[in-house]
Amino acid sequence: MPITITAFERSPDGGKGLARDTRVRWALEEVGQPYEVRLLSFGAMKEPAHLELHPFGQIPTYEEGDLALFETGAIVLHIAQRYAGLLPADDNARARAIAWMFAAVNTVEPPILEFQNAKLFERDKSWSEERLPLVLDRLRKPLDRLAARLGSADWLEGAFSAGDLMMVSVLLRLKPSGFINEFPNLAAYLARGEARPAYQRAFAAQLAINTGTPPSG
Ligand SMILES: N[C@@H](CCC(=O)N[C@@H](CS)C(=O)NCC(=O)O)C(=O)O
């Protein structure tokens, strides 16, 4: 069944891989499934045709036969459940890996987005200076805990799983500012994720779109 995802026609990050189609591409690369990409402008994302697929008018979406999905957590979980390679076979280990996926989008990603918004869009507000320490405190707390839990392990629960894929994907947003380097083991974890050949292919594919150059090799 052919798989089609949607992505930005021009990503605001210029190809740093921070747009959320990258995590879906990465999951598909990990499980070895080919996919097509439909590129959308910001305008097209708010048109009825796309709102039918994505109620909030965002990217990415995922279409496979009769199935249409939105929300990267749900999309990556679907890929991980349908194709081998991203979830352990043992039921309990599988449930733990899924718990890490939820932790990524529900516990770790929100304060990262808040931090990003504070830095990018709230700098000119009169209250920005006063608020930033609160935002940073809310961000450091879950990262401290995550760093303590990961310790010197390569991945969160034994072998690499969809939980790591989602966690690394959300942590990537802390790379451009250098903030991730406050947590050396998380920075190393991020680098391990980025070094995976499947991530490299996913990154190259989105970069090619944003720079207009076909991926080499
Ligand atoms: N929680 C959603 C977030 C989706 C999202 O924020 N997508 C961004 C791109 S990374 C988007 O489409 N932004 C444009 C907009 O909201 O108009 C998910 O994980 O899929």
Can you characterise this structure?
The structure is a single chain. The chain is of the alpha+beta class and 217 residues long. The protein contains nine helices and four strands. It has helices spanning 21-30, 42-45, 48-53, 72-82, 91-121, 128-150, 162-171, 184-195, 197-211, and strands at residues 3-8, 36-40, 61-64, 67-70. A four-stranded mixed beta sheet has the order 2-1-3-4. Helix 1 (21-30) runs parallel beside helix 4, helix 1 (21-30) packs antiparallel against helix 7 and helix 7 packs across helix 8. 35% of the residues are buried. Bound molecules: glutathione.
How would you summarize what this structure contains?
With 217 residues, the chain is α+β, with helices and mostly antiparallel strands. Helices cover 56% and strands 9% of the residues. A four-stranded mixed β-sheet has the order 2-1-3-4.
List the helices and strands and how they pair.
Elements: E1 3-8, H1 21-30, E2 36-40, H2 42-45, H3 48-53, E3 61-64, E4 67-70, H4 72-82, H5 91-121, H6 128-150, H7 162-171, H8 184-195, H9 197-211
Parallel strand pairs: 1-2
Antiparallel strand pairs: 1-3, 3-4
Bound molecules: glutathione.
What features would you highlight for this structure?
single chain; 217 residues; alpha+beta; four-stranded mixed sheet; 9 helices; binds glutathione
Distance between the termini: 26 Å
Basic shape: globular
* C-alpha Rg (nearest Å): 17 Å
> What structural category characterises the helix and strand content?
alpha+beta
Helix amount: 55-70%
Oligomer: single chain
- The ordered H/E elements are EHEHHEEHHHHHH
Portion in strands? 5-15%
**What is the total tally of β strands?**
4
List unreliable stretches of 5+ residues: none
